[in-house]
Design goal:
With 123 residues, this protein is mainly beta. It has a single domain, classed as Immunoglobulin-like (Sandwich). It has 2 helices and 9 strands, in the order E-E-E-E-E-H-E-E-E-E-H.
């Protein structure tokens, strides 16, 4: 049975017309903090695969706690480049091997310099 999975959540995402949201290229740290919601029917030992522009950027085995609480992780800074990005995840059932795909998240990624210019113009 295929799961009905929500879009990936990105902690720093802000609204942007024509997109699900926008993010800024991270200037420091590990990258973008992301989360897969809990209570979506996946189980401990299932496999989570996360894709950024169709490139696999994260793989993880689900734990019992994450079934309810969700799965938090970082998308490495190296993958977060300016432009449009499509982000999705797949859960592979550890018992059957059947994959379930999330809805696709459409992001606009802006360089950090653009953010600084916008903030300066708002002063």
């Amino acid at each position: 049975m295929s799961l009905s999975l929500s879009k990936l959540q990105i902690e720093s995402m802000t609204p942007e017309p024509g997109y699900d949201g926008q993010v800024t290229v991270p200037s420091a740290g590990a990258g973008l903090c992301a989360q897969v919601e809990g209570d979506q029917g996946y189980h401990a030992e299932d496999i989570l695969l996360v894709y950024w522009n169709d490139k696999r950027v994260f793989i993880h085995t689900v734990t019992k706690v994450e079934e309810q609480n969700g799965i938090s992780f970082f998308i490495e800074k190296a993958y977060v480049v300016p432009g449009d990005a499509t982000v999705k995840y797949t859960i592979i059932d550890d018992q059957t091997g059947n994959p379930s795909d999330s809805l696709v998240l459409l992001l606009k990624v802006i360089p950090e310099e653009e953010t600084e210019v916008v903030l300066a113009s708002q002063r």
